Each structure stands twice: as structure tokens, then as C-alpha cells.
Amino acid sequence: MRTLAMAVTAVAALSAGCAHWPVNAPLEKADPAAGYRLANVRRPGQSEELLVFLAFSGGGTRAAALSYGVLEELARTEVTVGGERRRLLDEVDVISAVSGGTFTATYYALRGDRIFQEFEGKFLKRDVEHDLTWRILSPGNWFRLPSGTFSRSDVAAELYDETVFDRATYADLLRGGGPFVIVNGADVTTGARFPFTQDQFDAICSDLTAVPVARAVATSSALPPLLTPITLQNRAGTCGWTPPAWAPETPRGDVLGRAGLRGRELLSYADAAARPYLHLFDGGLAENLGLRSVIEALDLVASRDPSPALDRLRAAKKLVVIVVNAHRDPERDWDRSPEPPGKGDLEDQMWSIPVDRYSAEAVEAAHDQVTRWAAAAPGRSAYFAEVSFDRLPDPADRKYFRGVPTSFALKPEQVDRLREAAGKILRASPGFARLVADLGGAAR
């Protein structure tokens, strides 16, 4: 992102102006039967007994392309569900995504199979960094950006809105007929995950259906310092929202578990006078794989929480979790020298160490939870697959993909190799192979 950094420097030198980020709409009444939440999103013809959850990681266009390749493989895979022959792609219920993975997830949820004709040209094989740089440098933004209330990520949201998502909002997602998508940002103040769902927006008394999809995606991919936080207004206490039963109302000394900690995070927004504004940035800084949502849901099922949002998990007989992990793990040779790493390397490690370590733990936690879910009731089966470069058998391939940068400007051949690798890794996964065999499946 060197060209973007130059643009940032140029804009910062200009005089201040007057501009403001678009304010998120208020919610008059919190209604669990309304809005963009899992209970209100249903795909035509889906089986009640099979629940398919995808998690798309961060990692710029590298992550978007790897996720896209998984969608292609699911579209090629036919299975028998409820006595009918269907593509496995049509059985996807939920996609939880972070940063670069959010582009693929939301575009598919909005456009369905049109993604396979449009997404390469609109995003994967475009130099998005170039477009963003020139948008930042355009005269129309000379006075908006130095205002202090309109940021570079607001410019990014406008660019994605116009060139990728065609001004779609969450109302379009709600009626689009695609899977339920969780776009994950991170709260700058608390470090908590901030998912763009109506359940989360109820806590700040805001209507998610009016929010542009591009604004959520820009939030999840706003990696500092080159990109900046996205701001929301907090109107907690004005819509009659009541915390879920599992959210502790007062601090307790006992161990809350993951669900209890999630409740504590929701309650952190309750005092709107103390926190009238929320500043959100790259979701990968809270959890880079998008797995925490399924981990928390399985925790609640295990605790016998009666929430209707969990009905699908309780009714399912087969649970499928596929995580797309675009972690690149480049070679580091500083341990061969008596001199410690330089400033740039250390800054990079300060970000990557906590993100990478938590990601590895999240994969293990999700795998354990899925296994326990299957064992908790008779007739259940669980399938877990991880699509990551570590799964490639050829060392030369692993080295190549670990060298693909985290950026929004990849070469077309890099994109194509990522797509091909995603299908190869998924097909070779024992969990995926067992799922396809159990469902009488075959690749088209």
C-alpha cells in the first residue's frame, strides 16, 4: 500500500475543511422478529437437517480470492439432501467473514451465482489500491478528509459502494435470498468483536437495514495506520432493547465463559451518554478468522440457552464448518543473525503475533466445539475442514502462496492460482471428503 501511504501524506498537508461521516439510522423499537438476523434469513429449499457454516479470514485480495475458490468448489459439488440432488453451495446457511473475506461473502449473499460472472472484474482482478489512492487525492476530498469527522475509510466505503456493491444496503441482503452474512469489525475502545447484525445493532438502537453493505465491509477491512476507524452513533436506551438472558447485568467474580464475555461486550454500549460514538476498525484485530460467532453459538447451545436464534443449530443433524484461513506466514530469517529485527519487522510482528496465535487457538476451539455438539445428541454428525496454505503437500506451493502479499492489488495469475489452490485443498480435506461421501456427492 505504498501509493496509498503517499496519498495519505499529501492529503494531510492540506488545510482543514468541513465534512462528516454518514450517520447510522435510529431504531424506533427493538423487534426480534424484524431486521437482519439469522432467524429472519432463509434460503429457498434448504434442508433443516444440514447446517453449513463458512468462515472467511482477513488477508486482502488474497483472502477474497481463496474464499472465492471455496465457493467455486462448493458450486461444483453435488450432494443428495432430503432426497433431492443439490449443489452444496446452495446449502450454505451462514458466512462469518473478516476484512478481505467480507468482499466475497457479501457479494455472494447479494448476487448469488452472478458472483461467478462479475466478481473477478469488479474486485478480484482490479487494482483497488490504485482506485482508492486516486479517490483520496481527488479534489472533492481535499477539504473533507482533514475535517476530523470524515476519514480515509469513509472514502473507501464510498468507493466500494459505487464500484463493487452498487449501493446495496442491508435491506437488500435481507431480501436477497442468500446466506446470512456476519461482517466482523472490532471496537477500538474495548477490542471486542463488533458484528454487523441487527442483534448487535439493537444494543445501540440503530437500524442496520439502512446501512450500506460497503460501509460494513470498509469497517472490517480498515487496517491502521493507512486506513482509519469508521464511526457509528450510539443511541442505546431509546428503543426498548433488553439484554439477552445470558448477558450478566453486573460484574461477577466467577468465570463467565465465552457467551458471558460476549454479553459483557454488548452491555458496554448501554450507557450512551458515556459512549455516544463508537469507533470501529479492522475485524482481524479482534479475531481474524470469523470463527468466534460459531464458537459462541455452540457454547450457548451447550448451556441450553432457549434463544430462537439457536433453533437451527438445535434442529440440525449434520453440522459443517469450513474455515478459509489465508494466513501467509512469510519466511523470517532474523534468527540467523546476532542482530535483532529492525523497527519495521518488529512493528509487523506486533500486529501479527496476537492475530496469528488467536487464529490458531480459534481453529482448535471451533473444532472441539463442533465435535462436542455432535456427541451431545444421538444421530448428529459433524464435519470440519480448514482451507489454509499449510494443507498444501508441495513445499514449493506453500512457499509461493505465503509470499502473496496482503494487499488489494494482486496480479491476475496470483488470483487464479489462489482460486485453484482453494478447490484442491478443500477436496483433499478429510472432513470435507467424508461429508461428500455421506451425502452421496460428487464433483461436477
Briefly say what this structure is:
With 444 residues, the chain is α/β, with parallel strands linked by helices. The chain contains 16 helices and eleven strands. The relative contact order is 0.17.
Helix content: 40-55%
Shape: globular
Provide the gyration radius in Å.
Answer: 21 Å
The secondary structure category is alpha/beta
**Proportion of residues in extended strands:** 5-15%
Distance between the termini: 39 Å
Largest sheet: 8 strands, mixed
Average pLDDT reading: 87
Low-confidence stretches: 7-17
Q: Helix and strand succession?
A: HEHEEEHHHHHEEHHEHEHHEHEHHHE
Report what the structure shows.
This protein has 444 residues and is an alpha/beta fold. Helix content is 41%, strand content 14%. The strands form two sheets. Strands 1, 4, 5, 6, 7, 8, 9 and 10 form an eight-stranded mixed β-sheet that branches. The chain has a three-stranded antiparallel β-sheet with strand order 3-2-11. It is globular.
